[in-house]
What we know:
It contains eleven helices and five strands. The chain has 424 residues and is mostly helical. Helix content is 79%, strand content 6%. Among the domains are: 175-340; 394-424. It has a five-stranded mixed sheet with strand order 1-2-3-4-5.
Amino acid sequence: MSFVEIILLAGIVVLLVLGGILLWRLHALTASDNNAGADRKLIEIQTQLDLAARQADTREKAIREEFHGNREEITKAINELSDTMRKFGQHQTDQQEQFRNKLDDKMKELRTENSQKLDEMRKTVDEKLQTTLEKRLSESFKTVSERLEAVHKGLGDMQALATGVGDLKRVLTNVKSRGTFGEVQLELLIEDVLTPNQYVANYDCGRKGVHVEFGIRMPSSEDEVFLPVDAKFPTEDYERLLTAVEAGDTDGIASAQKTLATRVKGFAKEVAQKYINPPHTTPSAILFLPTEGLYAEMLRLPGFVEDVQRELNVTITGPTNFQVLLTTFRMGFQQMAMQEHASEVWKVLGAVKREFNRYGDHLTAMSKNVHAMEKHVEKLATRKNVMLRALKGVDEVSASDAQVFLPESASDGSASADGEDEAD
Length: 424
């Protein structure tokens, strides 16, 4: 429904409402007034209704004509707006087409440029990768060659080591060689920590024909007392234990441990009987086991080391704890040396104290002389001020006139006197 039809419908509704109102008033008048003037009023009302109907027709025609003109203007405006919108849409379509064409061209250029740059980057990356790969491969081949050479050299060293191990095994199979091995290691440890005057090799223990491998001098200012140290190496029993451990033989391990403990305890008894001889030696001795593994096996046996120490006064040691023990001995020697020189140090300190007292006396005397000199200088300054006040009215002569009245000798003497005063 258009706007004009809506207005016409509204006008018709208004007329119907007015007609209804007039009929209602006519009915009211007819019902209330039955006198002679009712006809006249009806005529007037009819006349007013006719006039209102004519006016309504006139208004309807005017409204229709106005609505018709407005419809034509609106239709014309709509048509013009449609043309304008169509032209605008066509223009927008043309611009979009142009923009799309330009965008396609730019995208093509960008693709082309990106393709070129990607090709260049790919080429550069390929060159770099090729160069890096060749460099890495060269370095890798070089490293591999060096490692292979090192492995080849290591194989040679391993062969030499295997030969040396075989030689060492052959050496250790001999009882005398085993003893020499333990003695050499013991000697190296002692020489590394103690000085030559702090131990004796092949100490006789105060018995003729009985010599222990080393006797360590005890740090004491009294008679010399030595600690006997002997090295033992039960190789066969220890190797049987290692073989049983590698094989996982529980019974064999227990049997080998028992045999090894018996052998080591026998060594301890031998050391206690042969080398402990107070007062030439200490009441105890040391049994040195030359390997940490062998010493660890002794420690693994519950209470074994403590029992040997308590029963036989023999301390079982390995290379590490024996070195610690030697370090303790060295500290004892250093403390003893400090005690021996303590009296000399006190004497030196007493002499220094006496000289310091004399130094203080000289300083006191010098201080007194300095105070006296200061007082003398103050008196001279006072006399000088007195003389200057007395000569305040006298005019000073020139240097040549002063030379005439005051000879060179006098001035020299005064100068020398001043110099002596300044020197004093």
